[in-house]
């Protein structure tokens, strides 16, 4: 199905839970202070779009295309990114709330998370190699068979990553946060 093209438009202060977003390909569009809470975004394409201060909580992103999508100061609580179209999926996040979000089995190399809340996020079997997690909070985040090779977590906190069940070769950690790699051994460090 060929979607109509909407190019370089700005959407400001729009509540898409009231006014439906047209099924289309949005190319180089910006969305500022928009509400997508619980909205069905399935099969919509967002190419090189920027989302600023938007709420996507519990939106349906099944088969949604996100290519070079940038999220700033957004709420993305409960999103199931693994349901998106994985072809050329590329995302970046700055100052976002991503609690209870899932990236299960996704390949998102070189993804940037800056000052994000990643509490209860599912990273199981995902590939985040060469990614940057700058000042992120990982409280109760799930890392199982996650590829974090050469990723930078030096300024992040509250993670529990078992080195035996995850790939952390050449990943960067600070001396202060390295304890998150030892918790599975149940040792006391004083």
Q: What structural category characterises the helix and strand content? A: mainly beta
Q: How many helices?
A: 0
Query: What are the segments in which pLDDT stays under 50 over at least 5 consecutive residues?
Result: none
Helix-strand sequence: EEEEEEEEEEE
Strand content: 15-25%
Which strand order do you get reading across the main beta sheet?
2-4-6-8-9-10-11
Mean pLDDT: 93
Q: How would the global form be characterised?
A: elongated
Q: What is the rounded distance between the termini?
A: 61 Å
Task: Throw out a few tags for this protein.
190 residues; mainly beta; seven-stranded parallel beta sheet; four-stranded parallel beta sheet; 11 strands; 18% strand
